[in-house]
Amino acid sequence: MSTEVTLRTAVEALNTGAVGEFHAALVRYSEDLMREASRLEAVSNTTGKPEITGSMVRDADLLLRKGYRNRAKSRLLSWAQVLGPSSGVITGLLFDRQSLQQPLNLVAFVVFLTLTLGATIFCSLKE
Description:
Number of helices: 5
Structural class: mainly alpha
Oligomer: single chain
Order of helices and strands: HHHHH
Largest sheet: none
Shape: elongated
Radius of gyration: 28 Å
Number of domains: 2
Helix content: over 70%
Strand content: under 5%
């Protein structure tokens, strides 16, 4: 009952132009919901009379609200996914006991090792 009162109050707050847009949005959404529920029913029912169940309507609602695909990855995550393996390869190439005796090679090794670990941990946390 609380949700119904809140919705009624919200609808009463709409001005004249908003009521028309609200009604049009409801009609569009109900048509999309029915189309999606019909599609789900057609997939599951191979023979017989079509029958749309409550679970099909719930599934159709979820698919319309959430979408079919995952959200796009951020650029930072994409770069980290490339940086991790490539800097790992460079770290492996730099690992040589003799060359690590030189300070510049040691610094480069530590930098690329840090990049590898940082990118790997970042990708693990973001996925």
